[in-house]
Amino acid sequence: MPIYNKLVRDRIPEIIANTGKLYTSRILDESEYITEVNKKMGEELTEYLETTTAEDAIEELADILELIHAAAAHHGSTFEELNKVRVEKAKKRGGFNERIFLVEVEDD
Predict the structure, then answer these.
(1) Which InterPro entries match (predicted)?
(2) Which residues contact 48 (CB under 8 A, 6 or more apart)?
(3) CA–CA separation, 91 vs 42, rounded Å?
(4) Helix intervals (H) in 1-108
(5) Which has the closest alpha carbon to 40: 16, 66, 59?
(6) Which sequence spans correspond to the domains of the chain?
(7) C-alpha angle with apex 17: 13 to 22, nearest 5 degrees?
(8) Distance (Å, rounded) from C-alpha 98 to C-alpha 37?
(9) Which residue of 50, 68, 70, 86 is surrounded by the most CB atoms within 10 Å?
(10) Residues 6+ positions from 70 with CB-CB distance below 8 Å
(11) Residue 59: HSE in the Cβ half-sphere, 13 Å Cα cutoff
(12) pTM for the whole thing?
């Protein structure tokens, strides 16, 4: 039986059970949970960086977005509040749409 030891989406146990397979799982405490969310976010980011098609990239970005929702909730926020912060930062400092690559800045 393969051992995974990783955070999975909420319906994965149901999906496994529907195949007739047995599995073992447990509920993480808060400390373990945010650690695993962070590990999973790194895993999904790596998978995104390794994609070769736009379709695969969108799939991985959706996984990252789901984990961002989870992390925001863990920190007592909502995705809407997180997006509000994003919008405010974009108003003050801009986004990344213009592809500006800063090379150097003169010292005083």
Answers:
(1) MSMEG_1276-like_NTP-PPase_dom, PRib-ATP_PPHydrolase-like
(2) 57, 60, 61, 64
(3) 28
(4) 12-18, 30-49, 54-74, 79-93
(5) 66
(6) 12-92
(7) 95
(8) 31
(9) 70
(10) 37
(11) 8
(12) 0.88
CA–CA separation, 33 and 40 (whole Å): 10
Cα dihedral 41→46→51→57 (10° resolution):
20
Structure tokens at 83: 């997006």
Phi, psi of 57, deg, nearest 5: -60, -45
Rg (CA), the chain: 19
**Residues contacting residue 39 through CB under 8 Å, at least 6 positions apart:** 6, 7
